Automatic annotation (TrEMBL):
The keyword Secreted does not apply. It comes from the Bacteria. The keyword Membrane applies. The lineage of its organism: Bacteria, Bacillati, Actinomycetota, Actinomycetes, Streptosporangiales. The chain crosses the membrane at residues 31-49, 69-89, 96-114, 134-151, 163-179, 231-252, 259-279, 285-303, 310-336, 356-374. Keywords: Membrane, Transmembrane, Transmembrane helix. This is DUF2029 domain-containing protein.
Amino acid sequence: MKSPASLKRAAEWALPYWTRGQAGRETPQDLFRVLYFGWLVAFTLKLLGSAWDVSWHFKWLRDDLAPPHLLNSAGTAIAVALTVIHGYTGYGVDKAALRLIQWGTGIFLVAVPLDLINHRVNGLDITSWSPSHIMLYLGTFFMIAGVLRGWFMGAPPGRERTVVLGAFFAFFLENVHFPEQHQEYGILSIGAWDNHATYAEPILLQFAASQMERPVDRAMMTAFSLPVPDFLYPAYAVVVGLSVLVVARLLIGRFGAATLVAGAYVGVRTLLWPLLTFTGFPPSAVPFFLVVAGLVVDLAFLVRMPYVRAVLGTVGVTAAAYGALAAQSVIMGGVYGAIKGQKGLLGAPPLAPSSAVWAGLGLLALWLAAEWLAARRRGAQPIEARVIATATP
């Protein structure tokens, strides 16, 4: 807890900046850093709440005031406050970044009551792929995209700029990959059922069975845990998830950027795994294949010709992602065959090999689009950061 004196000093520092202004106004460096470190705090709270939320929903019945929802809401409250500050003062953002942040926050806030209504009308609706949930991801997508642009355009060159940019991309990857966690938790829940170590509480299983109008059996567990086609998990991961790593590598501009962004996200998932499981919550498969694919993205950028590396990179990334997923699936089968219940970190949702062709084509299209946009801006002078070293507005 901060002392009243420290809070007073903070208020005295911030109050002079609270003036009306247009987006793109010159921003003092100390204020710029405070705003964007505030975004780091907001996204961290949202990430922790979201990670806990999926595990929670595979154990308990849904509750609007569940602790994961409150933790996520704390991050959302900070994000809304920062959106208001950017919009009113014009500090720390250009017009494009501000519009992205405002639209993202608006979509997210509209999606929250729609999601509550959806749960009231449709009952459990555990799937991460429901329309109201997709609106939440979409709002966060635009929100982080705006923050990324604001930091990319305004932060002064240096190590801090690169590290924070990578952190924002890791949050971006977490957001787009989030719906995939349904299958990552679901496959291990089915394995636990087969080994008589059910994670979900009886009240949740009975509620789901009643909603499906069938008994609590394996067919019900499968419909509950894996409600989407098998091709969706690998295809979505390759097309959407790995496109984020391609853009991260383009904007950060350093070898290893894609691998580090993927590694940061997977590292957080790996650290959270024991924290959740040791406190009695269900485990999830960890998407280690993203690190392998991120490394292939970085290797592809060693090729100087953009469109050639897009083609070669797509082939390599798709093969690496599907190969790593297949290996994880085999290991998962071995783990389940050796022990009762799931106690290992490895595992992967069902793999549909035929989807690799369409996943590769989708990734190629987005990779080529990213290269084309980057080529249009290549040769232009970088935009000067609108940051000054003074501590007064």
